[in-house]
Specification:
The structure holds two protein chains of two kinds. By secondary structure, chain A is of the alpha/beta class. Helices cover 33% and strands 19% of the residues of chain A. In chain B, β1 and β2 form a beta hairpin. Classes of the chains: A alpha/beta, B alpha+beta.
């Protein structure tokens, strides 16, 4: 059995709260962050629901103390807020004391500004500063600058909805192989017309509150969020006598090799990812106490993931599981980071969050998500992130190394 | 230098209306544009895969090159084989990017198509091949200024050496308007041809000069 990688700090901003404490309070209260869209002028305003963060860009800029001429996309603004919270939570005072890297992820990058100013760029130079913040790596560079990570590994992962999970996995592997002592890992995605229109075209957006694993689910709600974890090596933890929040015990990544946007009927990729993560963790499926499912509430995902859970755990045999997408919406590249924070909180407080809005079991199998808040001793949690392009990733978190 | 245990078992070239496998010309159809030519290749090799017709031109080129290599190169493709894909080119997905841009550049005739948009990445062509042959394996797509046998050789060697793959399907798939060039080869533990940068470069040249 290999030793887990220590998680020593975390930060988050989502539709249900602007920091870790607010997110946890909302999870306990069963308070959703889903509502009508207010910050994007879209023709789909009345046809969709989203998980939107309350702060405007101006408010976020003020929180970060940015000058008027900054060129931060909303993705970068959210990322900087969450990453700074994570670093403060880990009590990092000297970024240069250890070899520290940053692995951040995004799918939308600076598209929010590009779509706003696309035609304007040709006419005037007022907003051209945002052209340079369009690419996916820009938000990562800005977070690195905010955190003072200058001469180290700073990189960006974009594998659709599994992005942040892959960033976390990559960070853990960098520490395990001795390349770095400390890695800040996570992801950020803001809402944009680009994602709203793309998902609308695929006809997988619900016009009401999303209902994961429900027979009558109508699709997903998009959400915006950012979340980061601080991963540290055993040497850092021992030398600095660090408080460890939880351990990243296993990770697995596989491809579904089925379709560009759909998951395979039997969840081949998700099954492979979960099996690999269990192997890396060196534990049996029966050791998992709770599954934080990807559970986007699309017809395709929940059926495919449900079947994969049955293939890995048996039927009966699937442990308590729930999806937190009904709280935050599907936060795309950030989802794996958001749900990593929620998994660590679940371990710290021995609590399973309810799968909100569930009413009717799916007819394809006998899987019932946890629908009310449940207090139970939790030692090991498995979290799935399944993305377009067949990108499937699983992380396993535990109380003990 | 350490003994190089890896070999090239077969190679395929598609360029200027000509298809060759292992240095032997299989098909020539001069005087037709790429869409007509690649359709004739699809038919010639008795390919039964309707999804082919939805693909963009780069994917059609890469897909048929892989298809032909597997069929004519006598490569057994059992399910769950761990075959990695390592592709490269110069123009990325620019050909399809331009089609997508054409559909959005004019505000009055703004009509982007998801069917085109999904192909605005070069690595999608590897996804099409993975879906076709159920490959759950490593894949990487590199953009170079020109054919780069040294890099392909080193990367492939690394994948095989680290046990990340049992075989690697490698090469160059370049397409921009009517200029196209696909050169794919399979690296395995057995085969008639040496696997090193010089040998790859020789095959790349020879497969066209036949």
């Amino acid at each position: 059995m290999s030793k887990g990688i220590a998680i020593t700090g975390m930060g988050i901003i989502s539709a249900i709260g602007n920091d870790v404490a607010e997110n946890y309070a909302a999870l306990l209260k069963g308070r959703t962050g889903i509502g009508k869209i207010s910050k994007i002028d879209t023709v789909h305003r009345d046809a969709i629901m989203v998980g939107e963060i309350d702060f405007t860009n101006l408010e976020l800029e003020a929180l970060l103390g940015l000058s008027h001429n900054n060129n931060y996309s909303r993705t970068a603004l959210l990322a900087a807020i969450a990453a700074k919270e994570a670093v403060a939570d880990a009590n990092i005072t000297d970024m240069k004391a250890w070899r520290t890297g940053l692995v951040s992820s995004t799918s939308v990058g600076g598209m929010d500004m590009t779509e706003k100013f696309y035609y304007d760029y040709l006419e005037s130079d007022t907003h051209r500063k945002y052209i340079e913040s369009h690419h996916a790596g820009d938000s990562t560079q800005k977070v690195a600058a905010q955190l003072g990570i200058e001469q180290s590994l700073v990189t960006t992962i974009s594998t659709a909805c599994s992005s942040a999970a892959n960033a976390i996995m990559f960070g853990a592997r960098l520490i395990r192989s001795g390349k770095l002592d400390r890695v800040i890992v996570g992801g950020s995605d803001c809402l944009s017309k680009f994602t709203i229109n793309g998902f609308k075209t695929l006809m997988i957006l619900s016009d009401t509150y999303n209902t994961p694993f429900d027979e009558n689910r109508k699709g997903l709600n998009l959400g915006e969020a950012a979340a980061f974890l601080v991963l540290e090596s055993e040497v850092v933890v021992q030398t600095e006598n660090k408080k460890v929040l939880a351990y990243l015990k296993g990770y697995g990544n596989a491809n579904d090799a089925y379709h560009q946007t759909a998951s395979s009927d039997n969840g081949d990729g998700a099954t492979l990812a979960m099996e690999k993560a269990l192997t890396v963790a060196g534990i049996a499926s029966s050791d998992i106490d709770y599954v934080n499912a990807h559970g986007t509430a699309t017809g395709n995902n929940d059926l495919s993931e449900g079947r994969a859970l049955i293939r890995v755990f048996g039927e009966p045999g699937v442990p308590d599981f729930s999806s937190t997408k009904a709280y935050t919406g599907h936060t795309l590249a950030a989802a794996g980071g958001i749900e990593a924070v929620y998994s660590v909180l679940a371990l710290q407080h021995d609590v399973i969050y309810p799968n909100l809005n569930f009413k009717t079991p799916m007819k394809e199998f006998n899987l019932l998500p946890q629908t009310v808040l449940k207090h139970k001793e939790l030692n090991t949690i498995l979290s799935n992130s399944l993305g377009f392009g067949g990108n499937c990733s699983t992380l396993i978190f535990s109380k003990n190394p | 230098m350490k003994d190089n245990p890896y070999k090239i078992s077969a190679y395929c070239r598609i360029k200027e209306q000509r298809v060759s496998v292992n240095g032997e010309i299989i098909l020539e159809n001069s005087g037709i544009d790429f869409p007509a030519f690649i359709k004739s290749v699809y038919k010639y090799f008795d390919t039964d895969y309707p999804k082919f017709f939805k693909m963009d031109n780069l994917s059609k080129l890469a897909f048929m090159a892989a298809e032909i290599l597997i069929k004519r190169g006598k490569i057994g493709l059992e399910k769950n084989q761990n075959i990695a894909l390592v592709f490269s080119n110069r123009a990325s997905s620019l050909d399809t990017d331009r089609k997508h841009e054409d559909s959005i550049k004019d505000l009055d005739r703004y009509y982007p198509s998801p069917a085109i948009f999904v192909y605005t990445l070069p690595n999608i062509c590897m996804g099409e091949i993975s879906i076709r042959h159920h490959l759950y394996s490593e894949n990487s797509f590199f953009i170079f200024d020109e054919f780069n046998p040294g890099y392909l050789n080193d990367y492939t060697h690394g994948l095989l050496e680290d046990g990340k793959a049992d075989k690697v399907l490698c090469g160059w798939v370049e397409l921009e308007e009517d200029a196209y060039d696909a050169f794919l080869y399979m690296v395995t533990k057995n085969g008639p041809i040496e696997h090193n940068a010089e040998a790859i470069n020789r095959l790349y040249k020879r497969s066209w000069e036949i």
